Amino acid sequence: MIQIRIHGRGGQGVVTAAELIAIAAFKSGKQAQAFPSFGVERTGAPVEAYARIDNNPIILREQIYQPNVLIIQDASLLDNFDMSKGADKKTIAIINTAKDKSNLNINLPKANVYTIDATKIAMEIIGKNIVNTVILGAFARITDLVSLDALKQAIAEKFAGHDELIAKNIKAVEQAYKNN
User: Fold this and answer.
1) What is the layout of strands, in order, in the sheet containing 31-37?
2) pLDDT, tens digit, for every residue of 134-171?
3) What is the CATH number of the domain that holds 160?
4) How many domains does the chain have?
């Protein structure tokens, strides 16, 4: 089973990112699960969401303490929190930042750390600093856990009825996929 932990701030679409991973995994013929971790968070407060992917039914129903993949939508969280808690030397981290990975405060082998300036892509294509779908383009390319096609289908399903939003998000995902 692959366990994915997503970190970001309230309002950045962290929960939606987990849902999109699960939908894309399902469309790829896999079993999937997605759920948030909520407290009294509000816009801007740190938020976590989780996704699991497996070929077999998933019966586990708990937070993810030992992630195989970390997605960090806001690199400023690295300065105040240990995002790599529970990770091991094989854990992959995908981080939204314009910084070089050697300048990031994360306790993982640098070979497993991938960066993408998802904010830049989101601003150029979507027009807002909402990076959840953008970073998933990098996730699809780096991990090969879901296909680009399945991710585009998941976006179309999740945002059904909002054609312009779907088109922009798919274009942003394709750009992120190509960049990594």
Assistant:
1) 31-37, 46-54, 2-9, 69-72, 92-96, 113-116
2) 999 999 999 999 999 999 999 999 999 999 999 999 99
3) 3.40.920.10
4) 1
